[in-house]
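User: Okay, second chain of the day. Same drill as before: sequence in, structure tokens out.
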Amino acid sequence: MDTHSSKHANHISTCLELAVLLEASAHKPGNVSVVTNFESTRYEHFLASAVAARPSLEYAAEQGVAVSKGRISLTDVGIGQIIKNCVADINAWQHGGNTLLGTVILLSPIAVAAGMTLVDEDLEIPRLRENVKLVVESTTPEDAVNVYEAIKIAKPGGLGTAPKLDINDPTSTERILSEKTSVYQVFRIAEKYDTVCSEWVHNYPVTFDLAYPTLTRQIRNGDDLDVAIIHTFLKVLSECPDTFIARKTSFEKSREISLKAKQILELGGFETSSGKKSLSRFDQQLRKSSNLLNPGTTADIIAAALALVILNGYRP
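Assistant: Same drill. Structure tokens below.
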């Protein structure tokens, strides 16, 4: 790989690593942050995970560069292997359990797509999004098997069962290969009960159409970055019930949480004393019940939105 291409891939992975670090640091309600921990998962686990994820994200960007230069085809990118290697590295570098599975699944195609653009500063977001669509729609059955293995390594909470190609069914990977089922097709099965899968299938609508413009606007308004991230988090949560909560409890409960997030925003969020008090109570409520109400999927979306603003030139 030539020097410029190598620098480009390094630039992209730096942007994505920073996005993960900033997302983990923000004091989002119900999540681990710089000032709040769970019993078995702490802030340092996310820091270690962000650092451990970087090599795989840089390789993903390198694969994107190779596609843009015609050295490999999109089906040769190996996005499933990238996700699997990334999750395995994260697992090896910290003992806090599943920290970034959803984030890695969202960021890996973004890394490849950014590599395909060959532009470092002020990346065109619409063009990036077009490339993301190409990447996820070009996945292979081998990619799907590797994503299944990545999920087994991460052991995410609230996985439940699926009506078809269940992750816990040992015959699923054989069927994926025999029926030639891509990751994209697998995620179409899961999209109704997992927002991360839905993002892949529908070209990241929550990330690009809601989280990214909200975060951009909040930053432009001069908000403290932590406040900008929290307000964006509340906005996404208010409009998109968190599927991580839904799988661990119920869709009804996740909708209740979304309504509460909407009410906090209507009170002014961090900009008013009543909003701050309500947000503090909300945070405490979400931390009860052994973290069953942790809006983890919403956090994944915020990490992806941060990746976009940083790729587009934002610096804290």
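The first helix runs from residue 3 to 25.

User: Thanks, on to the next one.
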